[in-house]
């Protein structure tokens, strides 16, 4: 395969606007539709054990990607999606407008707009990694859950990210840069402990190795080119070494992987 940066499906770190952030709705939909996304979402949905009549809260529901699947399981129950982002809420509302059992509204994970002991299930999907106070959000989840209710969480551990390349120093520097930029980059490994500290009884802990071998799919989810450009700009990665690294990854064969944790706990 041609290893020139221009031929790479990842593009070049020197390409125009390499650090432009992706459209958040398209990014979230793309990540959910990926092989890894579909796999962990099925695992989390099954672990929540939703049934007819349940009331379930999706904290940080985003564009409502998962609300219809939950609605199909609760029947005459209730699915509540809350998000702090107005644009995300509008998108979610539009997607579920025809579903009578779904309600979407504004809400901060640190101060949920629900009364105590009002829901049977609470779900966090890739939300805790971004919060200022994950422990406070879990305390709120414990407050709104009924006795015996179930908390389900799914989060990556970005410090486990590995990208195979002969230049291991650049790969390691890239991982450190990406993980350090996430507010709670190691949240995946912390979920079980945080749940116990919030008063939950942990039921299950599953760790899944998310593996990418297709450069285009890895780029879509991990933003290799975008994050490398940022790492270079920050002085965390040498520009020339980074360009060679990106070209080799794009030319293949490539492998990138990180660990994704799914945890359930009882109130």
Total beta strand runs = 7
The CATH class turns out to be Alpha Beta
> Can you list the strand order of the major beta sheet?
3-2-1-4-5-7-6
What letter string, H or E per element, gives the SSE order? Answer: HHEHEHEEHEHHEHHHE
| CATH superfamily placement | Vaccinia Virus protein VP39
Shape: elongated
Structural class: alpha/beta
The helicity comes to: 40-55%
What assembly state would you assign to the polypeptide chains in this entry?
A: single chain
Q: Would you tell me which CATH topology applies?
A: Rossmann fold
Strand content: 15-25%
The major β-sheet equals:
7 strands, mixed
Kindly give the count of domains. Answer: 1
Q: Can you tell me the CATH architecture?
A: 3-Layer(aba) Sandwich
Unreliable stretches covering 5 or more consecutive residues: 1-7
Give the termini separation.
54 Å
Count, helices = 10
* Integer-rounded radius of gyration: 20 Å
Mean pLDDT, to the nearest integer, reads: 92
Description:
This protein has 267 residues and is an alpha/beta fold. It has one domain: Rossmann fold (3-Layer(aba) Sandwich). 41% of the residues lie in helices and 24% in strands. It is built from 10 helices and 7 strands. It has helices at 24-33, 35-48, 67-74, 86-95, 134-144, 168-181, 187-197, 215-222, 224-233, 239-251, and strands at residues 55-59, 78-83, 102-106, 119-125, 145-163, 201-212, 256-266. The chain has a 7-stranded mixed β-sheet with strand order 3-2-1-4-5-7-6, sandwiched between helices. It is elongated and about 55 Å long. The N and C termini lie far apart (54 Å). 41% of the residues are buried.
